[in-house]
């Protein structure tokens, strides 16, 4: 359950085009008319500045400009000369223009793809330069806590993001800004304290998370520990930045701006790529002296910290352009006014903390297995890159739908949307699992097997990848069900289930590694098994709470899609083997890539052809869901 930079993942560029400075300059030089003074800033529309041009902060991407939040009714009133229906400053925080779920999924998916592709490029470069040696192994341990803070708590779909989106969507502009400022003060103080602790006690923290490094009593183990300590000190500022980043993303999502959170992780990838390339230029591949390895570890950690700082700056600018203004420190009624936020955020943070303990448990056992931590990181990345794209694209719009339906007590439609969301998760993840499992080894060869990453590393990572893919669907389904509980203002039950899952995961890790001797494979098996059980428990409890979900329909659909998945995977494996026998294409890297593309295309086409012929009911249900609007019922 360890990714090089977590799962993340996931963040982007969105703002509105027209800054006040730009507009003021335009009308002063006579290129457009001066706006009427009786309009408030958030009531301006593009027609008042006809000379403004679309740029990278186009509202179609940002969805956060004041004009973009101008309601259809207000616009019609403006065009007719009446201003009585213009939104007031204290109105409920306005949403973006009505958009279909399909549009939101496509937009978020596109920006997330860009972020994930850069993340994959980052991993390819890191694997080629460092392999599965001490640098990457040390980073996987040193990044446990900073990664938890910056990507799990402060990242997309994290507690800060989900809580602020849920709460701010129900409040007016002034009240929302006040809440953001007060929550930021509390979270900032806690983050500063945690950053100081990580910096001052980096050594004991590493010894606690990776006791196997010291127990190995080898030069490589001691060097790995030393690198990890330095990396943790460099990344300690991430504790301070995580809260403001997540809160800022939540305030953007509350007004429909999903792009900045979706593409934001790309900044971390860019900075890490730059740092590793600079190290490569300086030391070249294969530099194995302790000084060179230490320099490589410092380069990666520096890239992470600079990337987090860039993410904070990006969301701060986007929020300022959205009209939230510069944050002010508010200490009056600090804790009293944030009770609504804390009622959701505290259990969500605790739940995420429990998930991180599961990661720590896996790495605890992995520290006694040479190379296991790095192998887990690479395999997790290959599995979670497509999962992260689908998670962002599906969960972000679905959260607003669930919140809207629960707020208006539309329980029948909520139950229907839950089942449709589960079906959408399955139809998105099952074909990928069916294709990637039989092709796991050639995928790792094509992506990672270069320079320092040798055949033995390929064998380790491909084996781990298979077991991650087995639990592929349950990762996404579990997160979707947790979103439903958050929409119902219940963060306690997911937390309680997470606690039980952590205990079960630790026990299963011990059984798989110590009793059955399955090594690193056993760690991933245990994780997938626990996620599957957690998903089933959440679904059963949710069904009871809502007076019954149409689970029979879902189980029937699951059976047919599982059967189709097996057929597609078998055809994919046979196709790849035939290509190697008859076409002799797999002797070169390009030949392997072409063989993978051809075999996977056959598998995908077969999967969706069978879905169309057998699962017509499921397809119709998903089409209905995709036509549903993000912030309104169908």
The global form is globular
- DSSP helical segment count: 26
Number of strands: 0
Which structural class best describes the helix and strand composition?
Answer: mainly alpha
Q: What distance lies between the first and last C-alpha atoms, to the nearest angstrom? A: 37 Å
* Overall residue-averaged pLDDT value: 76
Assembly form of the protein: single chain
Could you state the order of secondary-structure elements as H and E? Answer: HHHHHHHHHHHHHHHHHHHHHHHHHH
Radius of gyration: 25 Å
What fraction strand?
A: under 5%
Largest sheet: none
The low-pLDDT segments are 1-99, 629-634
Work out the helicity level: over 70%
Can you characterise this structure?
This protein is an all-alpha fold. Helices cover 73% and strands 0% of the residues. The protein has helices at 20-28, 59-62, 72-79, 101-130, 134-142, 144-153, 159-168, 173-200, 202-209, 211-215, 219-235, 238-254, 259-263, 265-283, 290-321, 339-366, 372-407, 411-436, 440-448, 455-470, 472-487, 492-515, 519-545, 551-583, 589-614, 616-627. The protein is globular.
């Amino acid at each position: 359950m360890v990714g090089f930079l977590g799962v993340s993942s996931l963040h982007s560029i969105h703002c509105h085009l027209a800054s006040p400075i730009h507009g003021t300059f335009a009308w002063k030089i006579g290129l457009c008319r001066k706006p009427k003074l009786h309009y408030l800033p958030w009531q301006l529309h593009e027609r008042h500045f006809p000379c403004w041009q679309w740029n990278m902060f186009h509202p179609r991407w940002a969805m956060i400009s004041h004009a973009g939040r101008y309601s259809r009714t207000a616009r019609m009133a403006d065009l007719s000369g009446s201003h009585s229906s213009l939104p007031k400053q204290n109105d409920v925080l306005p949403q973006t223009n009505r958009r279909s779920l399909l549009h939101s999924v496509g937009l978020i998916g596109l920006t997330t793809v860009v972020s994930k592709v850069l993340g994959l490029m980052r991993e390819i470069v890191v694997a080629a330069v460092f392999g599965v040696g001490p640098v990457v192994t040390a980073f996987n341990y040193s990044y446990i806590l900073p990664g938890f803070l910056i990507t799990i708590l402060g990242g997309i779909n994290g507690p800060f993001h989900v809580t602020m989106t849920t709460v701010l969507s129900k409040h007016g502009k002034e009240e929302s800004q006040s809440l953001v400022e007060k929550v930021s003060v509390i979270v900032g103080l806690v983050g500063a304290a945690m950053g100081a602790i990580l910096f001052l006690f980096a050594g004991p923290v590493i010894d606690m998370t990776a006791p196997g490094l010291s127990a190995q009593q080898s030069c490589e183990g001691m060097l790995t520990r030393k690198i990890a300590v330095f990396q943790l000190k460099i990344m300690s500022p991430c504790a301070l930045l995580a809260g403001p980043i997540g809160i800022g993303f939540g305030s953007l999502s509350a007004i429909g701006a999903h792009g900045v959170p979706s593409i934001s992780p790309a900044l971390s990838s860019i900075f890490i790529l730059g740092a590793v390339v600079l190290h490569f230029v300086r030391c070249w591949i294969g530099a194995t002296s302790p000084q060179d390895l230490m320099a490589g570890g410092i380069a990666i950690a520096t890239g992470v910290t600079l990337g987090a700082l860039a993410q904070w700056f990006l969301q701060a600018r986007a929020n300022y352009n959205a009209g939230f203004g510069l944050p002010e420190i508010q200490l009056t009624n600090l804790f009293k006014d944030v009770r609504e936020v804390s009622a959701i955020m505290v259990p969500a943070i605790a739940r995420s903390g429990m998930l991180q303990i599961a990661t720590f448990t896996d790495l605890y056992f992995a520290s006694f297995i040479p190379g296991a931590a790095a192998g887990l990181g690479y395999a997790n990345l290959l599995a979670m890159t497509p999962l992260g794209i689908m998670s962002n694209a599906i969960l972000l719009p679905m959260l607003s739908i669930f919140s809207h339906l629960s707020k208006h007590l539309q329980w029948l439609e909520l139950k229907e949307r839950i089942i449709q969301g589960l079906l959408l998760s399955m139809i998105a993840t099952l074909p990928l699992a069916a294709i990637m499992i039989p092709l796991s080894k050639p995928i790792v060869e094509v992506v990672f097997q270069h320079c320092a990453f040798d055949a033995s590393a390929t064998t380790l990572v491909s084996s781990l990848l298979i077991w991650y893919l087995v639990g592929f669907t349950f990762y996404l389904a579990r997160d979707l069900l947790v979103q439903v509980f958050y929409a119902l203002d219940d963060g306690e039950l997911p937390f309680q289930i997470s606690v039980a899952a952590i205990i079960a995961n630790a026990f299963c890790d011990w059984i798989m590694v110590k009793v059955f001797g399955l090594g690193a494979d056993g760690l991933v098996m245990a994780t997938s098994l626990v996620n599957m059980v957690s998903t089933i428990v959440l679904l059963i409890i949710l069904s009871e709470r809502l007076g019954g979900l149409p689970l029979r329909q879902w189980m029937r659909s699951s059976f047919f899609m599982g059967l189709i998945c097996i057929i597609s995977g078998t055809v994919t494996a046979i196709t790849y083997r035939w290509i190697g026998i008859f076409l002799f294409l797999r002797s070169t890297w390009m030949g392997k890539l072409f063989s993978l593309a051809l075999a996977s295309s056959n598998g995908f086409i077969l999967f969706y052809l069978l879905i169309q012929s057998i699962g017509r009911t499921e397809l119709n249900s998903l089409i209905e869901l995709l036509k549903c609007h993000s912030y309104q019922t169908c």
